[in-house]
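For the sake of transparency, this paper describes our internal protein records without simplification. The record that follows is passed on verbatim for readers who wish to inspect the format:
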Amino acid sequence: MSLYETLADEIARSIASGVLRAGDKLPSVRDACSARGVSPSTVFQAYYLLEARGLVRAQPRSGYYVNVPAESLPPEPGASCPDGESTELAISERIFDILDSVRNRDVTPLGSAFPSPLLFPLPRLAQAMAAHLKRQDPRDTVDDLAPGNPRLRRQIALRYLIGGINLPASDIVITNGALEALNLCLQAVTQPGDSVMVEAPTFYGALQALERLGLKALEVPTHPRTGIDLAAMEAAIERHAPRACWLMTQFQNPLGSLMPDDRKRQLVELLARHDIPLIEDDVYGELYFGPARPVPAKAYDTRGLVLHCSSFSKCLAPGYRIGWASAGRYAQRVQRLKLSSTLSASGPAQGAIAEYLEQGGYDRHLRRLRETLQTQQERMADAIAHAFPAGTRVTRQQGGFFLWLELPAAVDALALHRQALSRGISVAPGPIFSASGQFGSALRLNYGHPWDARTESAIRVLGELAREACSPAARMRPSANVSREARRPPRSS
């Protein structure tokens, strides 16, 4: 056996025994050479062999990391099966109750919708804000009114150009985060009583926006790998004549699905044939784990029907609440809705982010952020595989910072949420992601916070609670699942 094969086998045994765990970084080539007394060529060959075996992955500009063995992970969930009816919404109270739980700093925030603020360059942003304010002419403050700070809109247009989308800065409206952008776009293309197609499951913020505006949710089957089912969408269009569609084509919340490029093109073409606007929520697009940023559906829009919305809240500046909409043919309508409601987003925050982007370093920050998130995802997935009961299914994310778990039917996600909260752990239970009360045994977990002893312990506790719910004694007790039908909101066709 050659020297590099011997070294590879030693590392493989360390992985198998748990000495090296999922997400751990292998020693650098220099350190391995020094520790083993071998040449760089030997170390490289050993690492290439481990990569070919699927035991490690190469992270550009960073090194080699231990993979989670695919055979050790729970299976993935299948596509969802909503009933295809248009549903009136009444879920906000439940969502508010659950979201209140993630504000307590003593609670492990697995149910949070945000990554840890420790992952972001907040000191550099503060310096950028100080520099912006120091040289700002007081008369320039009117520039921050909708459509927004010209420097920031130019920087956003440059980000689109890097991604292959030639978009004029004049099409961009700066908003108070992506959620305001999405709400404004929804108002621009619908009237109360209209039906709007959404994924099943879908982001609960979309359901709240539909409820507030008196709209109905038309849930469409969605696969955790490839996104919304286009055949089911076409059938829903024929049956219900929806006025709009609100989707996440990239790292969907909560499933994490990434729609392939050819399906994005087909999606845009399908909606264009029926003249249905697509509100594309793309807040996680920069958090990809692959070699290049996937293109949004907006890239295939030739008729101005795609209203593309994003923000810096999930990838750069949480708390600054700076988002935007590129609303195509509806841009002027969105801008006027913005002016008639909140006038503008924070001027200092707009200026600070523009300053930061102009200084450079954003892509370097994003590379580090993506590496951290991918490592934390692997560690959480590995911990779930060891802690949760048989029958658990877990998504394989290609980006973002959420895992979607489908537990055995005996587990009531809302009851598990309450039990976990009493143990100092928050989770996001499946029913808050459904207009029709589905996903009663599902959870969304956030891996965007540091992987430490506290988080690892929280996963073990959740696994214990799920196992207990599956025990024969627990199945003998009356289940909260029985009453789910009674809690579902009314339907209308």
Remarks:
- Residues 479-493 have pLDDT under 50 and may be disordered.
- Residues 74-117+364-492 form a domain with the Aspartate Aminotransferase, domain 1 fold (CATH 3.90.1150.10).
